Amino acid sequence: MYHPHFDPVAFAVGPLQIRWYGLMYLIGFMAAWFLGYLRARRTDSGWHPHEMPDLITYCALGLLLGARLGYVLFYDFSTFLAQPLEIVKIWKGGMSFHGGFLGVLVAVWFFGRRTGRSFFQVSDFLAPLAPIGLGAGRIGNFINGELWGRATDVPWAMIFADPSGGFVPRHPSQLYQAFFEGLTLFLLVWIFSAKPRPTMAVSGLFVLGYGFFRFMVEFFRQPDAHLGFIAFGWMTMGQALSLPLAVLGIILLWGAYRAKGGGQGLRDN
After folding, report:
1. Domain span at residue 94?
2. pLDDT digits (tens, 9 = 90+) for 168-207
3. Which residues of 70-100 are buried (b: 16+ CB within 10 A; e: fewer)?
4. Please, what sign has the CA dihedral across residues 224, 227, 228, 230?
5. CB of 63 within 8 A of CB of 175?
6. Residue ranges of the chain whose pLDDT lies below 50
7. Domain total of the chain
């Protein structure tokens, strides 16, 4: 089947164009606010619904700045050295989850200092709110017809507008990522966090889940053309960045339950 070739512009208001990719970010932020509002309404949450606008604003700024800078550093540094002004042209694409993740960590730290909470008190509350936005972002990639998968002959293969690749059938890996990094990860972390867990445990499960799902889906995703495989003849940049996340998630979970066994209590998320 052929990719539908969606118009990347959802609608226009005069000269202002609203693109689907930007709308996906908006959907992610709105979903995070709504889910955070629901979680904060619990009497035992330790949070208040009126904190959600500030929390989401902090994280949105950290995400957008970090995602763009991460793409520059991890994926296309030479281009931005030659044309520094390209860094501000977000509408042309080029956002990195791993950079956005680091940006959100900085935002979490600042928000925790402002509200008198520890880093992991904030991150444990935030982790269940994030996957819907991750999935929406991958839907945006699919609408744009970018970041497609490797050539395949599976029945659901899709032909993208890919002159460099010869218009061959490919895995719709954007949809795989939307399903695993978005919906599946959301269900795992949301259900896990519904009961009191040791501090760091919810954050650990989110990091482990994302790192694992991203590492596995990368086997179906076409490596970035300007990078190719960066190690062992099969490892992509996405896998190289995701593997440490999975290891970090295991360490956080181990540390959380080890601390619990040592006498520290549970916390609400």
Report:
1. 9-261
2. 899 999 999 999 999 999 999 999 999 999 999 999 999 9
3. bbbebbbeeebeeeeeeeeebeeebbbbbbb
4. negative
5. no
6. none
7. 1
